UniProtKB/TrEMBL annotation:
Major facilitator superfamily (MFS) profile domain mapped to chain residues: 13-514
Family: Belongs to the major facilitator superfamily. EmrB family.
InterPro entries found in the cross-reference section: EmrB-like, MFS, MFS_dom, MFS_trans_sf
Membrane topology term: Multi-pass membrane protein
Keywords recorded for this protein, A-Z: Cell membrane, Membrane, Transmembrane, Transmembrane helix, Transport
PROSITE patterns: MFS (PS50850)
CDD domains xref list: MFS_MMR_MDR_like
Highest taxon above the source species: Bacteria
Protein name stated in the entry: MFS transporter
PANTHER family: MAJOR FACILITATOR SUPERFAMILY MULTIDRUG TRANSPORTER MFSC
Entry annotated with the keyword DNA repair: no
Transmembrane portions of the chain: 12-35, 47-67, 79-103, 109-129, 136-155, 167-187, 199-219, 234-256, 268-291, 311-328, 335-352, 364-382, 488-510
């Protein structure tokens, strides 16, 4: 009876941590759907609203490692709970925001809470469960991670259409309060491994500023795709970030109580894990940013209709998460990850082949199912394999590093895929607009409008009321749509290559059996 009660408490604790993870990851993507409504509500432009997205991305990425270390040192439950409370308060403030400054600041504070929840959830699950139950619990948590990111358009679309944009923030409040109560009652605290350690302030500063500089440089490039990589506005931030991270590694190798144990990166298995995390972000998560505009702007589905169709991808996380946890205890997780990534590569190639004028969901769903299977398999496996070979005191940091590489992969992927799409889009426009029988002034003006607006907004320009009444409308619209689909095909092929390379890397680097390092031996200097 006592054992039964203990098991029930464990699974309720998992519910609490899953709620935190779901909210934290959902808020990375859900705002995208609300942007058009926010433009009208704040009487502003998409450009001015960009920091509603960027504030969350930046703060989330740069604080993941810091929150992980604080959790390892002072107790993961304490930091997780504090992060959860902060996230709920910031969500309420965001819903009440009457101007963009308040909303931007609120999003940054919300991201700090989200980083604490995400960075410590895996480590808390690993310390609250043992044996085969640990694998199952981490598998379920992985499935929650997969479905939360992919379900943003559906949940956000429904909330915005039914209740307005503040609802995407207010919805966090009741679920967050429930998660706080369950965490307080059911989640077990972990030991405070840092009682006799000094806080590595230098490491925290260098890691945060280094990641900030790199991600901000990528954001600048994303917002100004025609800027050269060698431009000071881009290369200055990127080079500065690399220098700061090199300094971070040097400091970590010499301080007595480092923020990150650099020796973790001497293990091929751990390198393989962070590689897979990066590929997952640069591939599947980054691609979501391009799939949604395709379905809304070019195929013509509403936000809710798009979200429903994207269940073809996200539903697999819910279906496969618990199953993967069980299978991972019996079969090679290394080869399950490897094969799953190859399946995803095939899915992206299918969608790339289907691209063209007139494409619809009927053409896309087979590829989307394959991508969904990959997401549903790899996310849970990444969690369980990421905790293998990690000593208890480093579980929070290992979780944080996985999340950092996943987020960094997403940011790099979104920017890189955008540049590839833009290049193909512009090349096709340059080669075909001049062939349309239309005045030279119209060609020049419309081409400039298309390039300034970018591929996502090209459909709106081509099918605007003014252009649709012109005698050259059909030919012009065909060129714009074809240019967009050429860019999307290039995006799909690129992502397929990234995911397949990730599968090869997993095969070469991951290990089926990983021993926990002997912490009684003196550390290598």
């Amino acid at each position: 009876m006592q054992q039964s009660k203990h098991n029930i408490r464990q699974w309720i604790a998992l519910v609490a941590m899953s709620l935190g993870v779901f909210m934290g990851l959902l808020d990375v993507t859900v705002v995208n759907v609300a942007l058009p409504t926010m433009v009208r509500s704040f009487n502003t432009t998409f450009t001015n609203l960009q920091w509603v997205l960027n504030a969350y991305t930046l703060v989330y990425a740069v604080t993941l490692l810091i929150m992980s270390k604080l959790g390892d040192m002072y107790g993961r439950k304490k930091i997780f709970l504090g992060s959860l409370i902060l996230f709920v308060i910031a969500s309420a403030v965001n819903g009440m925001a009457t101007n963009l400054l308040v909303l931007d600041i609120g999003r940054g504070i919300q991201a700090l809470g989200g980083a604490g929840m995400m960075s410590l959830s895996m480590a808390l699950v690993a310390s609250n469960f043992a044996g085969r139950e640990r694998g199952l619990a981490l598998g379920i948590l992985g499935s929650i991670m997969g479905i939360s990111t992919a379900s943003g358009p559906l949940i956000g679309g429904y909330l915005v259409e039914q209740f307005g944009w503040p609802a995407i923030f207010y919805v966090n409040v009741p679920f967050g309060i429930l998660a706080v109560i369950l965490t307080v009652i059911y989640v077990k605290e972990t030991p405070s491994y840092g009682k006799n350690q000094r806080i590595d302030f230098a490491g925290m500063f260098l890691s945060a500023t280094g990641l900030f500089a790199i991600i901000y440089g990528l954001i600048v490039k994303e917002g100004h795709p025609h800027l050269s990589w060698l431009s000071g506005q881009v290369s200055g931030w990127l080079a500065g970030g690399v220098i700061l991270l090199i300094a971070f590694v040097i400091v970590e190798l010499h301080v007595a109580d480092p923020m990150v144990d650099i020796s973790m990166f001497k293990r091929p298995h751990f390198i393989g894990i962070v590689l897979v995390a990066f590929v997952l972000g640069a591939g599947i998560y980054a691609f979501n940013a391009y799939l949604t505009p395709l379905m809304q702007n070019y195929i013509g589905y509403s936000a809710v209709q798009t979200g429903v169709r994207q269940l073809t991808i996200s539903a697999w996380s819910l279906i496969l998460g618990p199953v993967v946890g069980i299978l991972g205890a019996r079969y090679s997780k290394k080869w399950m990850i490897c094969i799953s990534l190859f399946i995803g590569g095939a899915g992206f190639l299918w969608i790339g082949h289907a691209m063209g004028p007139g494409v619809s969901f009927v053409d896309l769903w087979p590829g989307m199912i394959l991508i969904g299977i990959t997401n549903g398999m790899v996310n849970p496996l990444l969690n369980t394999t990421g905790m293998e070979g990690v000593i208890p005191s480093e579980m929070g940091m290992a979780s944080g590093l996985l999340n950092v590489f996943r987020q960094l992969g997403t940011t790099v992927g979104v920017v890189s895929l955008g540049l590839i799409q833009n290049a193909q889009y512009e090349n096709y426009l340059n080669g075909h607009l001049g062939q349309i029988n239309m005045p030279t002034a119209a060609v020049t003006g419309l081409k400039k409008a298309l390039l300034d607006a970018g591929p996502f907004s090209g459909h709106g320009i081509a099918f605007s009321q003014r252009v649709s009444q012109a005698p050259f409308a059909k030919a012009f619209q065909h060129v714009v749509v074809t240019a967009y689909h050429n860019g999307m095909a290039a995006v799909c092929i690129t992502v397929a290559g990234v995911v397949i390379v990730g599968g090869v890397g997993a095969a070469l680097l991951l290990r089926n059996h990983v021993e926990v390092p002997d912490i009684t031996k003196p550390a290598d200097k």
